Amino acid sequence: MKVLLYCPLPFALAHGGQQIQIQCTQAALQSIGVEVEPVRWWDERQSGDIIHYFGRMPVPQIQLAHQKGMKVVQAELLTATGARSSWQLGLQRLITRLASRLLPAHFVAAFHWQAYRLADACIALTAWEAHLMRYLFGAPGERVHVVPLGVEEVFLNSAPTPRGLWLVCTATITERKRVLELAQAAVQAHTPLWVVGKPYAESDSYAQRFFSLARQHPQLLRYEGAIDDRAKLAQVYRQARGFVLLSAWETLSLSALEAAACGCPLLLSDLPWARSAFGNQARYCPVTNSVSATARVLKRFYDEAPTVPPPARPLSWTEVAQQLHSIYRRLLGARSGEGPGT
């Protein structure tokens, strides 16, 4: 078995959780004996049995892969879609179906909706995301698999330490993550907040507004940039009073899973992805433009955090790789007696 990983977005353009997901997936699959390498677009001699595509694979590429006898595993993050209301999703489904029936085929083809029906397997990070793949895009139920993100051993094996006074938020400083709005609420609620992360570009106006607010309130807002040392980040989670992420939309937050692995109480946006992944193991805050409303929820979480039970242990990347390997084997019709890398 040889698996080719394909990500259409260069890591150099946008850092974040998907980069970690792909790198850790590759390393974990290799650790259990699976041959894995990135797609080399310039190499016409590269071969493989499976393309694992991180995104929505263009339909013509799926068809070409099938012509060469390769299976296609599609893993698109339905980030914004997953945050839409039920009526918005219903409208999207209706528009999608009407467009498929009434509009010219070449126009509809540009959206690659058919990719969900052509792919040999679709990987969802949560049960909610799996539902959207079936409901919106008609993905066959038997081809949709829920495989969550994993967590590195450095987080799973971190030693418990006394928790401090700071809440922590690890996130890219961008509008979608609502880091500025969280910081404004922390100032109003007088709750100490440590933000770990960096913007996509230092010149970004949203990030500059956050930097300015942090400089104005150093006693309440701690900002020192991103932390690349994973062991140090695990220590930050272990010492934090709680973890907060109030994004406008997500798929499955890797930061939240890392915090959970370190036994950190969670306060998350009240969105389907979060409830699907964490259920009653987290506290929730409505996504609202009201700083005062967010501040009230944040203050209550800060006060209750020491008594909140820790979340359940998330999967390791090795456990995730084993789930993916099982899916790969079924796609290839592997015999039960074959070794782990076949």
**Given this structure, which CATH class of the largest domain is correct?**
Alpha Beta
Largest sheet: 6 strands, parallel
Helical region count?
A: 14
Structural class: alpha/beta
Helix percent reads 40-55%
State the total count of DSSP E strands: 12
Query: Rounded to an integer, what's the Rg over CA atoms?
Result: 21 Å
Order of helices and strands: EHEEHEHHHEHEHEHEHEHEHEHEHH
The residue-averaged pLDDT reads: 93
The count of domains is: 2
CATH superfamily of the largest domain: Glycogen Phosphorylase B
Indicate the overall shape. Answer: globular
Percentage of β-strand residues: 5-15%
The largest beta-sheet arranges its strands as 2-1-3-4-5-6
Offer a concise description of the structure:
It is built from 14 helices and twelve strands.
Explained architecture:
The chain has 342 residues and is an alpha/beta fold. The chain has two domains: 2-150 and 316-332, Glycogen Phosphorylase B (Rossmann fold); 153-307, 3-Layer(aba) Sandwich (Rossmann fold), CATH 3.40.50. Helix content is 42%, strand content 13%. The chain contains 14 helices and twelve strands. It has helices at residues 17-31, 59-67, 86-102, 105-109, 115-118, 127-137, 153-156, 179-189, 205-216, 230-239, 254-261, 272-278, 291-304, 317-332, and strands at 2-6, 35-38, 50-53, 71-74, 121-124, 144-146, 167-170, 193-196, 221-223, 242-245, 266-269, 283-285. It has a six-stranded parallel sheet, with helices on both faces. Strands 9-8-7-10-11-12 form a six-stranded parallel sheet, with helices on both faces. Strand 10 (242-245), helix 11 and strand 11 form a beta-alpha-beta unit. The protein starts with a strand and ends in a 10-residue tail after the last helix.
